[in-house]
Design a protein that fits this description.
With about 270 residues, this protein is of the alpha/beta class. It has helices at about 25-35, 80-90, 120-130, 155-170, 240-245, 265-270, and strands spanning about 10-15, 40-50, 65-70, 75, 100-105, 135-140, 175, 180, 180-185, 195-200, 210-215, 220-225, 250-255. The strands form 3 sheets. A 9-stranded mixed sheet has the order 3-4-2-1-5-6-9-13-10, with helices on both faces. Its main location: cytoplasm. It catalyses: a ribonucleoside 5'-phosphate + H2O = a ribonucleoside + phosphate.
Length: about 270
């Protein structure tokens, strides 16, 4: 364990998401952050002005990002979640940077291959690249919670305690300069039915891929809708997907380093 962040003192927390400033999941995240920050802590929101689902770790490198204040410690930026973290760290909170970045709570899971597309993960990844403890939180949707009055019930009930536990006990160190961050996925069931928390790897849903669906507008122009695959497909034991399908909260340690370390030896043998 290294670089644990004590929760015995008030914290300054920056929250963002990819569903947009008015998303209900952001309200859940704000409540989680307030509990984690403590009564004397501060929660700052910098979230996209419009939905940014599926943008991954995109940043608005080639054009400026407009930002506006909507209320006390509440800002909306016309950019991606990663843009929002950059805005929060280097502009909104530049005189006293955050202790922690929380991204979410996403409407839908960011388990398995969804991780690579997720703007929620992108926000947490940018926080880690800025050297800050960062966590992405996502709420799986399915038959077990889609008809609940509060579809975010599992994350609302269990989120704050889990974040506190990670801050106190998890490894927040780095490898090769890339800091560890965490992805939490809450299962698609009521809060009382959650079986526990499991440490998992990123899963893979066999045969589940993003694709396009052609359509024509009334004026005859042709468009393509991006669509995902089934989210109820199983994955290997020990993965985030399977843990969520089995009723557990998954916690997956991640880094921005995409190197396939297991392929390095064979690559050296092939080219050196």
């Amino acid at each position: 364990m290294s670089n644990a962040l004590p929760t015995t003192r008030p914290l300054r927390i920056l929250i963002t998401n990819d569903d947009g400033i008015n998303a209900p999941g952001l309200e859940i995240m704000h409540a989680i952050a307030e509990e984690v920050a403590g009564p004397d802590g501060e929660v700052w929101t910098v979230a996209p002005a419009f939905e940014q689902s599926g943008v991954g770790h995109c940043i608005s490198y080639s054009h400026p990002t407009m930002i506006g204040q909507l209320g006390e410690r509440r800002f909306a930026a016309e950019g991606s979640p990663a843009d929002c973290v950059l805005a929060g760290v280097h502009d909104v909170m530049k005189d006293s940077p955050p202790d922690l970045v929380l991204s979410g709570v996403n409407r839908g899971n960011n388990s398995g291959e969804n991780t690579m597309y997720s703007g929620t993960i992108g926000g947490a990844m940018e926080g880690a690249l800025q050297g800050l403890p960062s966590i992405a939180l996502s709420q799986y949707y399915g038959p077990g919670n889609v008809d609940l009055e509060d579809q975010f019930e599992a994350s609302a009930v269990h989120g704050a305690a889990l974040v506190k536990s990670l801050l106190q006990k998890a490894d927040w160190g780095s490898r090769g300069g890339y800091r560890t961050f965490y992805s939490i996925n809450f299962p698609p069931i009521p809060a009382a039915a959650v079986k526990g928390v499991l440490a998992t790897s990123q899963g893979f849903r066999e045969g589940v891929k993003f694709a396009v669906e052609p359509t024509r507008a009334p004026n005859g122009r042709r468009y393509l809708w991006i669509r995902g695959g089934r989210q109820d497909q199983p994955s290997a034991p020990g993965t985030d997907v399977q843990a969520n399908m089995d009723g557990y909260i998954s916690v997956t340690p991640m880094r921005a380093d995409l190197t396939a370390g297991d392929a390095m030896a064979s690559l050296k043998a092939a080219i050196e």
